[in-house]
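Notebook p. 47: complex prediction with 6-O-phosphoryl inosine monophosphate.
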Amino acid sequence: MPIAAVIGAQWGDEGKGKVVDYYASFAHVVVRFNGGANAGHTIVHKGKKFKFHHLPSGSLYPNKINVIGNGVVIDPKKLIEEIRQLQASNIHPNLVISPRAHIVLPYHFALDGAEEELKGGLAAGTTKRGIGPCYSDKANRIGIRMGDLLSKDVFRKKLHLLHQIKTKTLQHVYGKDFQYSEEQIYEEYCGYASLLAAYVADPVLLLQKTISSKKNILLEGAQGTMLDIDHGLYPFGTSSNTSVGGACTGAGIAPSRITHTIGVVKVYSSRVGGGPLPTEIFGKDADFIREKGKEYGTTTGRPRRIGWLDLVTLRYAAAINGFSGLAFTRVDTLSGLGKIKVCTHYLLDGKKLLFPPASYWDFEACKPVYKEFEGWTDLGQKGWSAVAKKGFRLLPQQAKKYLRFISESIGVPIYFVGVGESREDAIVLKEVFKRK
Ligand code: GDP
Ligand code: IMO
Ligand code: MG
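Predicted complex, structure tokens below:
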């Protein structure tokens, strides 16, 4: 009865969608447990690109149960669009939405924009999907949940309260006129509720039954450990627990049940949004990686900042999450460079740091110390696909050396190596679920 969690080990966009898509083929249930439409998880299958924002990345398989857990914040309009897009490709995900998941409302989008404007240098450069304001209302116990939407009386009562609080805040604190009336929002969201009602059911019972019947569960994280609200680079991260603790609270799974925690590691760093990134690089190498890897945000289209791999934050992520294995992605993207660097530690005021400091101003002052590696040749798409079929042994020598160095430095074995976008372009060293 393995339960595996897939967690972003860096700053998001590590390639979690691809890793989840692979391991999901042997899972009975796949659960998204945090974040919302700020996430963009890409899966390339049979030459077609799918981008999921809410839907679990098991959604391409016809026979899986895909759960949107209580820890997710749902933009119902976007979710309906996602479901419809899949249906247009004749894919009908077997979806279960937790009645405990919170709903993103028009106030949240307006506040996300208004707050970011005021934050200046403290802005995280959010995706403007209303994530922070929605989680704030959840914590403040004035949020509206999926289950509330299904009861017209409850929805009306809660919306009435929220509308007063939010319109006053927007107007008097931020000087913004809010264009929606309470009635407009009520009607619009009742419409979404009627379209989503059929999917709403309590996943906790379903997950308990799945555990009792010894079937496999895959827990899909959004964002990455350095964006975690508690353990990430505050205030430049997101508003949910992106690390493995969030999988327990956001899905309703006991910590003792999780048997594997897979950390997804892009073999360099990328980041969208503000805040310090000690290993950031500019110029020729950064442009090479960004263009070759099409490193533009899946959700917002923003160019991603690029950096060398950072073992300080990775070591920390492995500790926080207790990674049992690493899933590397983008070995093909990093090919073709003469030299590749890895940050082994930081220097802060002359002191050696193996773990990142807690405060962003210290983080900003950290100087990365690098170890240099020879690069490896680009084998071309066909060459990488051939390597994927043949296994780890046939990776270029320098790439193996690089990956082994990372794995040994962190003390976590390699489970998976991505060498291309497609489902097949992966070398799997360790299955977490038994093949049937
Ligand atoms: P996620 O948010 O962690 O799921 O990652 P994104 O989907 O935002 O970004 C990862 C991008 O990398 C997507 O375009 C994937 O198709 C792509 N990708 C994932 N693994 C690999 C890999 O091993 N090689 C290449 N070339 N692309 C990959
Ligand atoms: P996936 O799941 C990369 C970043 C934003 C911003 C900060 C807060 O695709 O890896 P938010 O909208 O959450 O309030 O923004 O977090 N961010 C991500 N960066 N990948 C993501 O998701 C992200 N989700 C949020 O750029 O800096
Ligand atoms: Mg992404």
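Notes: The longest helix spans residues 152-173. The pocket of guanosine-5'-diphosphate (ligand 1) is lined by residues 8, 12-18, 40-42, 44, 298, 329-330, 332-333, 418-421 (CB under 6 Å).
Next step: compare against the earlier run before touching the bench.
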